[in-house]
Amino acid sequence: MNKINAYIGIYTPGSLSAYLAVVGADDGQIYYTTTAECNADNPTVSLPSGISEYFDGPITMQYIENTPIGNNIYIEAEGKMSSKSYRLALIVEGEDGKELQMWSEAYTEFVSRNFEGYTEGDSEMSINCMACGKESISVGSYRSRGSEEYLGQISYFSSWGPTIDGRPKPDILAPGQSLISSVSNYDSFSSEYYTEVQSAFGRDNYWDTMMGTSMSAPVVSGIIATWLEANPELTPQDIKDIFAETAINDEYTLAEPHKCGYGKIDSFAGIKKIYQTTGVSNVAAEKHPLVIYQNPSDGRFTVLAANESAVTVSVYNLSGALAATQRCNTSGGFADVDFSGSLTPGSYIVKVAGTRSHCASKLIVK
Fold this sequence. Notes:
This protein is mainly beta. It has four helices and 21 strands. Strands 1, 4, 5, 6, 7 and 9 form a six-stranded antiparallel β-sheet that branches. A four-stranded antiparallel β-sheet has the order 18-17-20-21, with no helix packed on it.
């Protein structure tokens, strides 16, 4: 049987009417047409029992007029066709010259089956309405793990806009295919699916590979949290402006810009932009955290050196012995350090000293 869980929204600034029919799956022949159309004169339709010969389950249609995005009809259908020989058909009538848009949620799609008069659906404007707020920051996904030939590609599951009022979405892309992260010890899935299991604290601890915009959105949330540490006054529009100036664009984002917003997020370029915009003199030199990028590194990294024209960067091993030191000039509040070839793989403590500040943090050398 053909199960259906359909949640459909129809939007247009003009007049609007819709009804359902049952058609043959192979030839489009109409077997049943609902007698009641959903429109401004008949805003609520619960389909009559006559359709039960073909479809088992409730179907409701609701007309709502004069919303901020026009006139709407919402359709819910949950059930199954009595035979694979039948399909539900949706017939919509709009106003000449007025654009009409339709969306389906869950696992419903619009297919024409090459029947005359029916329209095939597509993935344009497929981004979820929860990600379309004007103050919200919506995040798409790109591939950051797996076969090298696919790295950087926009994820197949990453939806895109524009919104119904023409705004591009998502705003930014981040790694979301595939990420390895910790799994709850109370997770009910079989351990055979886990990527890694390690014993500690008297229990087994699990890691797994997952993918989705539910993975890429937390990446951006964490990055923005660090940006807000640098400047707590940032607004959503400020953050989008930083995206616009610092995001990475490559062959994949340039090929499909409508799916990418401003591009791929660049955490470090963003925080550098914040310090350059707000002025590193606004950072309390004696209190600011030591920012090290990249970390882990190969011995080459950049440190934040607020309010300093030059700093001494010293690296100590975990026994406290000095492993390397270098005097560095700063540019825009940052100093580039190169200890490549001087540090063996391992963990170190980096200390940065200037005339106004002293700070330290851990560094991992690969």
